[in-house]
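question for whoever is on the cluster today: can someone run the full assembly for these? three chains, 571 residues total. i dont have access anymore since they changed the login thing
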Amino acid sequence: MLLKKIVEELGLQVKVAGEGLTNQVTGAYVSDLLSDVMANSKEGELWITLQVHPNIIAVATLKELSGIILVNSRQPEEETLKKAEEEQIPIITTELPTFQLAGRLFNLIGEC
Amino acid sequence: MTLKEVVKILDCQVLTGEEELDSEVKVGCGCDLMSDVLSFIKPGALLLTGLNNPQAIRTGEMSEVGAICLVRDKQPGDDMVALAKENGIILLTTSLPLFDACGRLYQNGLVGHSEYKG
Amino acid sequence: MPVADCIRTAWWAILSIKDEVGVGVSVGEKKDITKVQELVYEMKVDQVMARDIITVSPDDLMSKLRELLRDKHISGVPVVRDKRLIGMVSIEDFIKCLAEGKMDSPVKDRMSYDVETLYDNEPLVRAVEEFNRLGYGRFPVISRGDGNLVGIITKGDIIRGLLKKMEIDYHEEEIHRYRASHFFEDIIADKTTLIFQYKVVGKDFNRAGETSSGLKKTLRRMGMSPKIIRRVAIATYEAEMNLVVFTDGGEITAQVTPSEIKIEVVDEGPGIPDIKKAMEPGFSTAPDWIRELGFGAGMGLSNIHKCADVMHLESTVGKGTRLEIAVHLNDKENRASEEDS
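^ ran it for u. tokens below:
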């Protein structure tokens, strides 16, 4: 499913889009531990996290994730936004807590 | 949702609290950052986490969670299981990743914090 | 220390009054005092008070008191009408009356109407406080439910009640040795303030949380409200994590008084350069490895702030940090939210 469609369906706020909104989302990975995401996420997955640290962009780039959703109304740090622009990693925010966002996204894209 | 249902939906292994699976969890929480758990989790919630260290149990103890479920087949150390037992924390594990675990429970009617009325 | 000695020590500690049953006073080890300290919070007035009370009616004559005061060795009698306490008549009133030769006057003319009372469901610690504050020998006990006089309590009743309970508990402890073992290990007794001190080891991530866990269990045992306990536990745990993550260790002191729980957390470095910034949610100087353990995301201090009624943080770089928080026990807000749940 296109990232754009997910943003629309779930009513999410786009902070950094670039060309990324046309990314194909192959699944989702939920984690707040960078090492976990480094080890276990797969290419094309959408990453749901509370972490707003600039390091998340490095991880997303390395793992070629389709985007990052920050939950619980968490706002990215300046540096994070800057890096996201540079790397063309979409940053999306929502006021929903992780459990609910994951639940709704799961309903939308199913198990992967 | 009863913990029995949780165990069934997530195909959990029950590490502690086998005899208390009739108790109910009213709200789900998926989180790996313990301060965030402490700041918003509701007493009696089900905490789903990939954090496999004793601080997950401590956090559950302080915030009075209903149960903790480790995801992605994390096998806690003996010290962690002992700590859970000692503090009456129900500890489960599932092989599902956090996304699927949250998703399946949500699909089966377990709500998140901002949907919980009570 | 033999049980009898430690009970004696405990009596002295908790009552800090010249006891009337003639028990000797000796100061023993701190931890022996603690059982009684705990019990005065747990036990209620109606568990130790005397229920078979001798009363007089306001219309009785003072002369009736003669036998009562002589035969029963009591020094004051509640005056009751329709189960309601309306006053107290004391041995002093009787003597005065005797001196004036007015033994045929009714009790209602000689008694005092302004009587200090206790409720049946108040914790013993309240009774101890009132005995110390007012210096009276006894308090009539009123039922919180129907307002009737239900008993009378003396210092001796408290001592006997505690003694009885301790014997039972000492027996139970054999069975629940584990359960009892983590209570009151680090306590300093001071009348109605309980002080718990804990040393926290720095950099030992696996043991982090032991202090908060111990404190939480103790508060629960004392019958504190679950909401209060949760707030204190979360704030203390965050503070403990800060000690473990950022310092070489420090000390946590909890003071429990009838009105508040005060937590003081002190360390000797490295100190916080900008407290205002450190308080901002999400601001963190934690190393990556801590973040990977689920902490250090910059929410700790704001969590503490959220849980506390009062928070005071002072720090000098290179010297150390001192955090003080208080959670009030009797706020309207606490009671209101208590009823919600």
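summary bc i know u wont read the tokens: The CA atoms of residues 271 and 317 of chain C lie 4 Å apart. The first helix of chain C runs from residue 3 to 15.
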